[in-house]
């Protein structure tokens, strides 16, 4: 059935906004099976004319339903229904079959699903709120496809890409970093990496050389201070390349600078997430940033700035990178396209100057390029065409909506405090305020109980080094649809309410 034949009743005297009324009418039509999966909806202009609403109102309703997972919009082609009504078991996500790829990778309507091992398919019933997974629904985008077409057409080369990345991609990244992170740098300061882990491995090796006075000297062990709690993958990578780690207590305001300064002997470097601490979600104040840089100068240390998701801020503009305050070439800015595009491409960068920049380039020369030339060409094209900036804008709208859902559902629960809400795509549910034993226990029992009910979340203690202190859950809201998120939050509400009642 086409929407022209749908009984869309708009009450212009109602207090409910017109876009919300239209979204409700379309949602109802999908849920009662009037609109079927794969069916195209009219263009926003055609529907606006037929129901006599403004086009902006129709766009807002379509956006809302796309965010909830009912509709799929591809720029340049029809918006289609994504949900099949199968009696009471309806879920607002593309139907999964044995051949579908994974829970966070919905195939676009009409696409032929690739055959895949069952081992790789997430269990049907699990809603994955483990942090770190972005939404990739907006990536079905002509700019992305065109970038790859261009890259493949230009791939018949017999040489290897430069070790630090192609000039085209380094220039596009320098431009991106200037626009998105406020940092002016030259393409020569940029090193292309296969994501953050690859960047940290390179930095660990470069620090080994620097600790040995410049020559490759595997016997010199760099000491690197890390946030506690912090990013476990980073710790594993740095240890793997021979670093010795020192945990520094970190709270909602960022790393404890007095604790850092008290380390003896002083570390060669510190790894921080100043714009959105991982996982707690706070940010380091400008004063804290200046003090950190003063410490680094006095201690002759390097600051590794892991800037993994700063493009996503809610309510406030993204904070400029810490590296923008650096005047002595001590900060290595590590960025990743895992959140702004997809972790599937494994691509990121380091911006580094001075001794560290030189040491990093020597490491890269020895190891060779870590990202294929085809991929670098595609990503460069995507950045140059403005495709990435548009994708960030689209996906930010989705995240803002889901973040609001988390606040509305979990915010009012007694004994629970939500943290890390200003940015990124995860939130911390602090449970220290729950009464009695529940407030003193780490959240692993809650994690296990949620898993039994088909919801995957992480415990704050999974991120701790020394295990001091805070208890709670870490929830990622990037990848699930609104309906999946809503169902998962209902499970968590049950569990947290029961914990509060004990
Ligand atoms: C703190 C932190 N840094 C960086 C990343 C991105 O890592 P990669 O670029 O290796 O995908 C993540 C991903 O979840 C993260 O949580």
Task: Note down, in words, how this protein is organized.
- By secondary structure, the protein is α/β, with parallel strands linked by helices.
- It contains 15 helices and 16 strands.
- The chain has helices spanning 18-31, 44-51, 55-68, 142-153, 167-181, 195-211, 232-240, 257-261, 286-299, 354-367, 373-384, 387-410, 436-440, 444-452, 482-501, and strands at residues 71-72, 80-81, 127-128, 190-193, 223-228, 244-251, 254-255, 269-272, 302-307, 331-336, 348-351, 417-419, 426-430, 455-456, 458-459, 472-476.
- An 8-stranded mixed beta sheet has the order 4-11-10-9-8-5-6-7, with helices on both faces.
- 45% of the residues are buried.
- The structure holds pyridoxal-5'-phosphate.
- Residues 132, 195-197, 231, 273, 278, 306, 308, 336, 338, 343, 348 line the site of pyridoxal-5'-phosphate.
- Pyridoxal-5'-phosphate binds at residues 132, 195-197, 231, 273, 278, 306, 308, 336, 338, 343, 348.
């Amino acid at each position: 059935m086409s929407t022209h034949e749908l009984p869309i009743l708009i009450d212009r005297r109602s207090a409910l906004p017109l876009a919300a009324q239209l979204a409700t009418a379309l949602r109802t039509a999908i849920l009662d099976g009037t609109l079927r999966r794969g069916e195209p909806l009219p263009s926003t202009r055609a529907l606006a004319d037929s129901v006599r609403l403004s086009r902006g109102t129709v766009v807002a309703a379509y956006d809302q339903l796309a965010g909830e997972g009912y509709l799929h919009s591809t720029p340049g082609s029809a918006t289609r229904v994504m949900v099949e009504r199968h009696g009471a078991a309806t879920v607002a996500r593309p139907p999964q079959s044995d051949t579908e790829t994974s829970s966070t990778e919905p195939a676009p309507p009409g696409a032929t699903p690739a055959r895949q091992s069952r081992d790789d398919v997430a269990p049907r019933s699990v809603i994955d709120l483990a942090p770190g997974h972005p939404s990739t629904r907006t990536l079905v985008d002509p700019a992305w496809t065109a970038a790859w077409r261009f890259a493949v057409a230009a791939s018949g080369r017999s040489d290897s890409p430069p070790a630090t990345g192609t000039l085209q991609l380094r220039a596009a990244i320098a431009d991106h970093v200037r626009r998105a992170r406020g940092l002016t740098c030259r393409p020569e300061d940029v090193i292309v990496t296969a994501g953050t882990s690859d960047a940290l491995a390179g930095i660990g090796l470069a620090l080994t050389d620097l600790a040995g006075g410049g020559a490759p000297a595997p016997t010199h062990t760099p000491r690197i201070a890390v946030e506690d709690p912090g990013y476990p993958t980073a710790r594993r990578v740095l240890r793997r390349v021979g670093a010795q780690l020192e945990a520094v207590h970190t709270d909602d305001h960022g790393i404890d600078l007095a604790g850092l300064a008290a380390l003896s002997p002083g570390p060669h470097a510190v790894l921080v997430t100043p714009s959105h601490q991982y996982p707690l979600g706070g940010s380091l104040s400008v004063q804290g940033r200046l003090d950190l840089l003063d410490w680094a100068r006095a201690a002759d240390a390097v600051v590794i700035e892991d800037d993994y998701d700063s493009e996503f801020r809610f309510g406030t503009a993204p904070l400029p990178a810490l590296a923008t305050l650096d005047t002595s070439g001590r900060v290595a800015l590590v960025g990743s396209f895992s959140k702004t595009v997809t972790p599937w491409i494994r691509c990121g960068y380091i911006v580094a100057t001075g001794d560290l920049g030189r040491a990093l380039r020597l490491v890269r020369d020895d190891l060779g390029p870590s990202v294929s030339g085809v991929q670098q060409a595609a990503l460069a094209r995507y950045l140059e065409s403005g495709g990435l900036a548009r994708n960030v804008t689209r996906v930010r709208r989705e995240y803002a909506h889901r973040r609001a859902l988390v606040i509305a559902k979990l915010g009012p629960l007694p004994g629970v405090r939500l943290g890390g809400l200003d940015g990124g795509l995860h939130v911390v549910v602090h449970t220290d305020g729950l009464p009695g034993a529940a407030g003193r226990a780490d959240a692993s029992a809650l994690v296990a109980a949620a898993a039994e009910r088909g919801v995957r979340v992480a415990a704050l203690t999974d991120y701790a080094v020394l295990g001091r202190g805070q208890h709670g859950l870490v929830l990622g809201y990037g990848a699930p649809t609104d309906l999946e998120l809503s169902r998962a939050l209902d499970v968590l509400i049950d569990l947290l309410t029961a914990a509060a009642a004990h």
